[in-house]
Amino acid sequence: MSAHGAGWVLRSAAAADVEAIAELRATVMRADLERLGRYDEHRVRQRLRDSFSARHTSIITVESELVGCVTIRPAEGGQWLEHFYLAPQHQGRGLGSAVLRTVLERTDAQMITVRLNVLQGSAARRRRSTTAGAG
Hints:
Blueprint: E1 2-3, E2 8-12, H1 18-35, H2 43-51, E3 57-62, E4 65-75, E5 78-86, H3 95-109, E6 114-116, H4 123-131
């Protein structure tokens, strides 16, 4: 567990977190998936369930409430940053940037390249070049 001065905590995920994360994913991705004509009420949740790894996922909490998650999955030549979701009411306040900075500081310290894959037209694409300096 890693506590931060801004009032948020990054903790290891547990298997029991999967449904809360699946719901968060459905909420966060809905607008982008609808824009692309790819939103499916069941599939958006099932894709998370199918790829969920508690071992590689961290939960973002604020005042003990799950407000987000991030997965860093080992891959050939580095790691993939996946499933980085933040509840809408916590977006736009710098929390996502702070979490990403913390995650990238850890991988930078280990000299690990991090790769990111985002949906076409996603707001994350606009931020990627300024915040994901590790790869």
